[in-house]
Amino acid sequence: MTETDFRALDARFYMPAFGRDRMLVKGEGSRVWDDQGNEFIDCVAGIAVCSTGHCHPHVVEALCRQARTLIHISNLFYVPGQAELAKRLVEITGLHKAFFSNSGAEANEGAIKLARLATGRDRFVAFEHGFHGRTMASLAVTHKPAIREPFGPLEPGCDFVEYGDIEALKGAVTSRTAGVFVEAIQGEAGIIFPPEGFLRGVRDICDDSGALMIADEVQTGMGRTGRWLAIQHSGVDPDIVSLAKGIASGFPMGAIVAREGLEFSRSQHGSTFAGGPLACAVARATIEVIEEVLPSVAAKGERFREALARFEPRVCGLMIGITAGERCDGVAAACAAEGVLVNCAADGNIRIVPPLVITDGEIDSVCDVLSRALAR
Questions:
Q1: Which residues, 6 or more positions from 180, have their beta carbon under 8 angstroms from its beta carbon?
Q2: Same domain, 24 and 150
Q3: What is the DSSP pairing of strand 340-341 with strand 39-42?
Q4: What DSSP state is assigned to residue 285?
Q5: Domain's final residue, options 246, 266, 287
Q6: Phi, psi torsion values for 232, nearest 5 degrees
Q7: Helices 360-375 and 277-307 sit at what angle, rounded to 10 degrees?
């Protein structure tokens, strides 16, 4: 199919919800190729999804091996590998029990339901510029007015406060607050770090009020920041963690993991596809690969920091943000022209979230290209 053909078909038959400029047709490691044969180092990685790179052999083998045996059976039966994966996520997070979903938005939906169920309360507090999904309930706790307001009124009710403002949070949390949604690093906002002690303050307010602390680790989790969870850098233990993106190397998968005493009983929550045989097989293989590369993630982040120091990057492992302002789209386009894919998050911030398997040589190439683009 020619480029003209697929663009025409897309325009005719697919709802225009995305802005797209090329078709990627092949991936290997940290590199992808488009339909014209152009090669790129991929620092978008499916938006922090392709944690093990593209088509990692161990992940591909796990997927194919499971597909030859059993693709789907539903959760009416015990699912091969599901309990083993839940055990690994409990070990990784230090929490008690897991429940699977098909995406990060669904994971946050599950967290909302569980918080309401456990507390008997009906409202939430979240933070300005935070992002938690586009389904109706996850959208209710997502701040960005442009994507939230067209679909109102939304449920559950949510109050938004400035990210990092503990005093404002104290004022917003009431006896009706079931949970506080917080990102240890705001990803969609452009890689924004919280002030020192902020996450501990959120924990203390939740303890004092009886609200649950819900850590959205959809973008920051699964080794992205050099720890399994970004919140682990702070030493704070949340009540519920939501995961997705990097959990299964691009296979649709999400999860919530909750502390002891927080769990769904029979028929209180469910999903036809969630935690199916293929997803569990791929997620388990992904975790095995991440375990191997996790010790190197912090050093790779420092390599980015040192090479891009004059542009004041915000770096935590392989989660990197650089403010480019109104030039952001132009910088991203200039990088693509030289074989590096980055994208613009909110407020003119370049977001760099490459596969965790990116090599030092590839990092150096990315930094050379990005430095030239930013310096223009």
A1: 124, 125, 126, 169, 173, 202, 205, 206, 211, 212, 213, 214
A2: no
A3: parallel
A4: H
A5: 287
A6: -65, -20
A7: 60
Place of tokens 């194919």: 64
Query: For residues 302 and 103, is the Cβ–Cβ distance under 8 A?
Result: no
Domain match, 77 and 225 both: yes
Domain boundary (227, 261, 287) is at: 287
List of E strands, 195-302: 212-216, 240-243, 254-258
**What's the domain range around 237?**
59-287
For residue 201, give every residue at least 6 positions away whose Cβ sits within 8 Å of its Cβ, in sequence order, or none: 166, 169
Question: What is the reported pTM?
Answer: 0.96
Identify the weakest region by mean pLDDT among 10-24, 266-280, 300-314: 10-24
pLDDT in tens, 82-106: 999 999 999 999 999 999 999 999 9
Q: Are 162 and 189 in contact (CB under 8 A)?
A: no
DSSP count for the chain of H helices, then E strands: 12, 15
Residues 319 and 359 in one domain: yes
Q: What's the number of domains the chain is made of? A: 2
Bridge partners of 256? Answer: 99, 242
Amino acid occupying residue 57: P
